[in-house]
Design a protein that fits this description.
Layout: E1 2-7, H1 27-33, E2 36-40, E3 49-53, H2 59-68, E4 74-76, E5 80-83, E6 99-103, E7 121-123, E8 127-131, E9 135-140, H3 143-161, E10 174-179, E11 194-198, E12 202-207, H4 210-223, E13 225-227, E14 232-238, E15 240-244, E16 250-256, H5 264-276, E17 281-287, H6 315-327, E18 331-336, H7 345-348, H8 367-383, E19 388-390, H9 399-403, H10 405-413, H11 418-435, E20 439-443, H12 444-450, E21 459-462, H13 467-474, E22 478-481, H14 484-487, H15 496-500, H16 511-514, E23 517-524, H17 534-538, H18 541-550, H19 558-574
Helix pairs in contact: 3-4, 5-6, 8-11
């Protein structure tokens, strides 16, 4: 099946690298000149011409020498400084274990191709392709649903990123999209791989699923630049060939709507921002002590715990958000945090709480609690279509169970300690979700309390200590990484560098156990976040986590990531996502002074 749809594309404006730039505006480029891209012998570019031997083989000393020498574009690991280093041809002279270091200011993979996250394989040429506007996308395979999906993606991409009128007279390339299967199911096991090839004549995205094709479309959009000299859209360094596949299947951000309500337009923009970074999970922390903002038809009194009647998500709102996320390749995982963090439940249903004076955790001694939870989970699974269902379980203070006579008597009758009652509650709720075909996720404390005593299909989200993940997988459980010292975005002093180097496999070396690490999530807890500051709190720091979860494990150099991150931040702002300056000393601070988007 074939169809065509009009698409107009632009990515980050590529500024000229001019040696005469005044000192106060060239900071961005100065930093780039101190970054070198290491090309291994298997894929190194041509070594160019020799300048002079540096008299050393120390890499840092050679970098410093090259920075100071006019015309130096890189160096060989044997100490030879180089000029006229080109990209796109094989260096057959490199011995095994040797390497060629190319200054990033001359490396289009860093400057001309500011792709985030970095693809698994990126091969570049030296040509330039003009992108004709409008672009006709020709799609093959996938069926009618795939056609509709790609039409939506193409239409939105056009509306988002075209910011300049182009010269329509210049001919240019089109975009072919080949979807190899009709599989439209979005889940943990969805194939998100894709290939992208761009020549001066055409561009082709090939993927197994529409979700992989959408990632390819995102990468394609980041390659396109507006050329102000020719008034055209272009892709540089063609032919370009990308082969890409995510390292982890679960890549997400938690958003908390219980501490502050987020409007539907902001929720959609948040979901769209996930797609730009190839994140695929929206972990929706729906309710907490402060508010219960979701309306349930079968339990209408629960929404009495909302902040106000105007700050509520209706069932139709939820379905709309889930469907919008699907069209962006994003799974939505709901979380009802029980038995702690549930004070707002008591407003409409005091019978499931220990007492008026001491109302947390939820009462495990009455069937009313589990009847309500059964009804809640059943209705929620009708709105949230994902296989995963988060049941919380963190920070459970059980003092109220000991001070409430009826609960204390129940524990005595069952010979339960407070930990036994906690385990009983977790096991009951896990069974309720499992009965409805859902895999339950719990926070780390549940594992810390009960170790290997729970069903092996339980998934644990680690947040207190990254080291716990190694213990979880050693017991045969799956885990999601969200350790607070690197991926808790409400910690405003956490830097993008900390997010970037936080590897989910840290401390886990056994390949069989590594397979149990599903991926990770950055967490945007909402105590100090509402619609006014959500995006400059999340971005650009979350891009560090996004690249860590997508790109190869060997991609871990923060200096090499910096120029791409700066370009990606500007890409986000050009698409209406108010990302904060990259060089902020603390998240969401305003720009410190006038200057380029690329140097703040």
């Amino acid at each position: 099946m074939k169809f065509s749809v009009v698409l107009a594309l632009i990515a980050v404006v590529s500024l000229p690298l001019c040696k005469a730039i005044p000192l106060d505006t060239r900071n961005f480029f100065h930093r780039l000149e101190n970054i070198y891209h290491r090309l291994e012998s298997a894929d190194a570019s041509c070594a160019g011409a020799d300048l002079v031997h540096g008299g050393t083989k120390d890499i840092q000393e050679l970098k410093a020498l090259c920075d100071q020498m006019e015309g130096c574009q890189g160096f060989h690991s044997n100490g030879m400084l180089k000029k006229d280093v080109s990209v796109g041809c094989q260096d057959n002279d490199l011995a095994k274990g040797a390497a060629l270091y190319v200054r990033s200011v001359d490396n289009p993979a860093v400057i001309g191709m500011p792709i985030v996250p970095l693809p698994r394989s990126l091969k570049l040429g030296s040509g330039v392709a003009t992108v004709q506007l409008p672009i006709a996308i020709q799609c093959q395979g996938g069926g009618a649903e795939a056609e509709h999906f790609m039409q939506d993606a193409a239409k939105e991409m056009s509306e988002l990123i075209v910011t300049h009128q182009a010269n329509q007279a210049n001919p240019g390339l089109g975009l072919n999209v080949v979807v190899e299967t009709s599989d439209m199911q979005l889940s943990l096991s969805t194939d998100e791989s894709y290939e992208l090839s761009v020549t001066e004549a055409n561009a082709t995205i090939t993927a197994r699923t529409v979700f992989g094709a959408r990632h390819g479309l995102e990468t394609f959009s980041q390659l396109v630049q507006f050329d102000f000299k020719t008034n055209t859209y272009v892709i540089r360094s063609v032919p370009v060939h990308v082969e890409d596949v995510p390292r982890f299947a679960h890549r997400g951000i938690l958003l908390d709507t219980a501490r502050h309500y987020h409007s539907l337009p902001v929720m959609k923009k948040f979901i769209r921002s996930l797609g730009h970074a190839k994140l695929n999970v929206f972990h929706w922390h729906l309710v907490d002590n402060q508010a219960f903002p979701i309306q349930l038809r079968s339990l209408p009194r629960l929404v009495m715990g909302a902040f106000s009647p105007l700050e509520v998500y209706t069932p139709d709102d939820v379905v709309e958000i889930v469907q919008y996320a699907y069209r962006h390749g994003v799974r939505v995982i709901p979380e009802y945090d029980t038995p702690g963090h549930a004070k707002a439940w008591c407003v409409g249903h005091p019978e499931i709480c220990p007492s008026v004076e001491c109302n947390l955790p939820l009462n495990p001694a009455t069937e009313a609690t589990f009847n309500l939870l059964s009804t809640l989970i059943k209705e929620s699974t009708g709105m949230f279509t994902d296989d995963y269902f988060h049941l919380g379980g963190d920070e459970v203070d059980m003092k109220c169970w000991l001070t409430t006579p009826s609960i204390k008597a129940w524990m005595v009758s069952k010979n339960f300690s407070t930990d036994d009652a906690y385990k009983y509650f977790v096991a009951r709720t896990h069974a309720l979700a499992k009965k409805l075909g859902r895999k339950s996720v719990h926070w780390e404390e549940v594992f810390n309390h009960f170790g290997g005593e729970l069903d092996k299909d339980t998934i644990f989200q680690v947040w207190l200590n990254h080291d716990t993940a190694a213990k979880v997988v050693a017991k045969g459980y799956q885990t999601i990484i969200s350790n607070q010292e690197a991926w808790y975005l409400d910690h405003l002093k956490i830097t993008w560098q900390q997010a970037y180097v936080n590897d989910p496999f840290m401390g886990i070396t056994d390949p069989a156990q590594q397979k149990l690490v599903l991926g990770g999530e950055a967490c945007m807890w909402g105590e100090t976040v509402d619609d006014s500051d959500i995006f400059n709190t999340i971005w650009p720091r979350a891009a560090g986590a996004a690249e860590r979860l997508w790109s190869d494990a060997s991609v871990k150099d923060t200096d090499a990531f910096l120029p791409r991150l700066e370009a990606f931040r500007c890409l986000l702002t050009s698409r209406g996502i108010g990302a904060a300056p990259v060089l902020n000393t603390m998240a969401r601070l305003a720009p410190p002074h006038p200057g380029s988007c690329f140097s703040q």
